[in-house]
Amino acid sequence: MAAAVVLPAALSKAEMATAMPESGGTYLYIDRALGPLFGTIAGIGAWFSLVFKSSFALVGLGAYLLLFAPISQGAVVYVALALAVLVVALNVSGTKMSGQIQAVIVTLVVAGLLAYVVNAGFVADAGRYAPFTTHGGSGIITAAAFVFVSYAGVTKIASVAEEVKDPGKNLPRAMLGSMAIMTLLYIGVVGAIIGLSDPEVLKTGGPGGTASLTPMADGAGALLGGAGVLFISVIAVVALTSMANAGVLSSSRFPLAMSRDDLLPSSLQTIDARFKTPRNAVLLTGVVLLLLIAFVPVIELAKLASAFQILVFSFENMALVAFRVADVPSYEPEFKAPGYPFVQVFGFVAGIALLTQMGTVPILGAVGIILGSALVYVAYGRPRTDRTGAIGTILRARRGEEDDGIAATEPE
Questions:
Q1: Whole-model pTM?
Q2: Where are the transmembrane segments (predicted)?
Q3: Per-residue pLDDT for 401 more than 70?
Q4: Which of 225, 250, 316, 372 could form a disulfide with 159 if both were Cys (CB 3.0 to 4.6 A apart)?
Q5: Is 107 exposed, middle or buried (0-12, 13-18, 19+ CB in 10 A)?
Q6: What is the C-alpha to C-alpha distance for residues 405 and 407, in angstroms, rounded to an integer?
Q7: pLDDT digit string (tens) for 268-294?
Q8: What phi and psi, each to the nearest 5 degrees, are found at residue 317?
Q9: Can you list the domains of the chain with their CATH numbers?
């Protein structure tokens, strides 16, 4: 269900990425389509969302680390902080190195997850799949909203589009290919977890009787005994570190792109003379990452990341509609999203419907980020920019006015 809601945004983003292969991704497309106010909200929101996800990954890996490393529960946060510093240093040192390490890690993790799923098929308890629901349809919808953040990675590549070779071909392939692969893999992993694990352990096996924080390891003993738990725990730690690295790599490009458009201070445009990376943007992202790890509970991090990711993906669908309706000459994508506009309308409506199932705290968090971002725009960005985006072109055309001459895919 989560994948079905993500797919329209992935298609829309793949099209817009081929028209605007620049750093900034989500921010860039929404800004050029809906104007700088929505661009500021989307840019800051998407940045926070990915930093939330990276924080969630680094804190979450601590629960798996406890299964095989001789450390105390209290030391988990310090381990996560140390890994965060390492990830930030890696991203300052260069995209090429970060990308090469990421490619090796992801390959190993995917192979490990496939082995987990395939072997689970031979020993899983079929009786654990019935009944299909225990809390009705609303429970499934809430779960889909909660795991939505898992798919944030399928479009992260757009954030570093200007660093990608042959973006017209490689960006859609990367986004839609990873979407297909990860959807099947995620479904397989969840199916394996349910078939291998005692449901009571999943529900109450965490700290203080809360939900388990190590669901993959809970049933891994049925595969390979103690060795299975160790194997899966190592895979989980490596995977979550990888997720954090990818999050910092992509999220740091949002402040960079926004500063180029005068929506954030120009110091965030600074490119490191030695490593050719946006040093200040990465360091700012790293500081927020460390603060979240130190002070925000892990489950709330996941909820906040999912809530704003849903909202941002919904905006992306509307951004594509704005570009198509405005028919801006400078908007010339090499890839065209199929099913327009029905796919985009479905993605927007379904996203908002999922958002309503997230609970009070995530929704209030999303509202807080929206209001804070709007304040940043009014106080800093508005006096420095006068572009209106594709939506402005549409409104002027309906009023019979001439266009302002600012291409919707370029800053003034």
A1: 0.82
A2: 26-44, 75-92, 104-124, 136-154, 175-196, 222-249, 281-299, 361-380
A3: no
A4: 250
A5: exposed
A6: 6
A7: 999 888 888 889 999 999 999 999 888
A8: -65, -40
A9: 2-399 (1.20.1740.10)
